[in-house]
Amino acid sequence: MHTLSPPQSNARIAPLAVLPVFFTLAGRRAVAIGGGEPVTWKVELLAATGAHVDVYTDAPGEELLALSKRPLVAGTIALHARQWLEADLADAAIAVAEIDDDLAARDFVSAARHMGVPYNVIDRPEFCQFQFGGIVNRSPVVIGISTAGAAPILGQAVRRRIETLLPDSLRHWAEFAEEVRSTIMDKLPSKQQRRAFWERFAEKAFGGRPPEPRDLDLAIPATGGRVTLVGAGPGDAELLTIKAVRALQSADVILFDDLVSSEVLELARREAKRMLVGKRAERPSCAQDEINDLMISLARQGKHVVRLKSGDPMIFGRAGEEIEMLERNNIPVAVVPGISAGIALASRLGLSLTHRDLAQSVQFVTGHSRNGGLPPNLDWRSLAAKTTTSIYYMSRRTLAQIVDELIAAGMDPGTPCVIAADIGRATERLWRGALADSPAAATDFAETAPTLFGVGRSLGKVRLASASPELARISI
């Protein structure tokens, strides 16, 4: 007997628990029933939309009385000291009620249906035709959040996340956009020019300051595109900076490294073209000259190119070479930093790389030169100092040689060290032990894995409770 799988849907929109809609209530009449704190909040919310709110209750609470006497920036509130009647719902655009009794709630629902008015009984979803969600208010930018009643606390957490992303000045930029829209249509006849303007406009809108008349200078047609070097961090999408997310959401093309996680790429603008240009040992790779040519070609087509690099682009990411090349070709370039893998490792282990009793400096060192081996000019006496913590990047192949050089320069073979691969990902591997034992331990790590090798007395302070079970088991 075969079990049939459900048919695959080709729909562009996944199923929705509720339909998000927005009521325009300015100048219209709204009805509220009840006198407690829950309905008072809804009355204030309705008045904020510019509605005239008629409130019916013979027992108004202190909050409602105070609200009815308070000057409002929008809308009006009229308090009627009596029980509601069905006729009170006539011509209402919306009606809300604070009713605990089931029979009374059914009467309200019946009356609202008879009058053709959308209705809501506060905190009683079985008596609601619509629901109030969480609101992020940057009006005229208004965001509604709903979990369809399944997880209100989760909805509040989502609202708080969005609040942190949207500066309060965004409301002024939205108003400014409405004022200048017709001017932009006249100045920029082509669709590509207008889109480029609005992308630049949106970036300015998130800068935290209100708009100024000079911001219309953005409407000057751009003669070419631009490149933004963005740090993708160690792989966890939640470790991206807000500025990095904004760059991804405004990109036309994303040139990403092999180590960039799919979770990070998911945050990019859906229409952006994604192109893998990673460079990995013993794998087919793009040459740096090819990547440079690609950035130049795409930018000269007027596109916003995001060069997405694992970790921080300014640490062992060839960012300096790319910036110089772009500037020589008169292509605007900006950099958005990311969390470097060495810092992510320290966070993952729950330690300070510069513990004041053990290390007064930290060094990020490449374990891989242009020719594939160790760089010939490393200062091993400095790297072997007791007062420093060193993190060697791209060090899997050269780890044994690093250990030999450090011991030869006088470092104690018992110095604590850590080997880490795929830090912060589901495939993460960690080992902690003594310097002398690390070459044998490294053989358990794939040579092609992105590997960090940390050495220093501060690494003996690892809090095992925060580390993986594998680390706790192997540690000494």
What does this structure look like?
With 476 residues, this protein is an alpha/beta fold. The chain folds into three domains: 29-132, Rossmann fold (3-Layer(aba) Sandwich); 223-336, Cobalt-precorrin-4 Transmethylase, domain 1; 342-474, Tetrapyrrole methylase, C-terminal domain (Methyltransferase, Cobalt-precorrin-4 Transmethylase, Domain 2, 2-Layer Sandwich), CATH 3.30.950.10. It is built from 15 helices and 17 strands. The chain has helices at 37-48, 62-69, 102-115, 152-165, 170-187, 191-205, 242-249, 262-265, 288-300, 319-328, 341-349, 380-383, 399-408, 438-442, 469-474; strands at residues 29-33, 52-56, 76-80, 94-97, 119-121, 134-138, 141-145, 226-231, 253-256, 273-276, 304-309, 333-336, 361-366, 388-393, 416-421, 429-434, 451-455. The protein has a five-stranded parallel sheet with strand order 3-2-1-4-5, sandwiched between helices. Helix 5 packs antiparallel against helix 6. The chain is elongated. The model is unreliable at 1-9 and 464-476 (pLDDT under 50).
Estimated share of beta-strand residues: 15-25%
Rg computed from alpha carbons, rounded to a whole number of angstroms: 30 Å
Name of the CATH superfamily of the largest domain: Tetrapyrrole methylase, C-terminal domain
What would you call the shape? elongated
Count of domain modules: 3
In the CATH classification, which architecture of the largest domain applies? Answer: 2-Layer Sandwich
Largest sheet: 5 strands, parallel
Q: Catalogue the unreliable spans.
A: 1-9, 464-476
- The number of helical runs is 15
Rounded mean pLDDT score: 86
**Order of strands, widest sheet:** 3-2-1-4-5
Q: Termini separation (Å)?
A: 55 Å
* CATH C-level label of the largest domain: Alpha Beta
Helix content: 25-40%
Counting helices, strands and paired strands, the structural category is alpha/beta
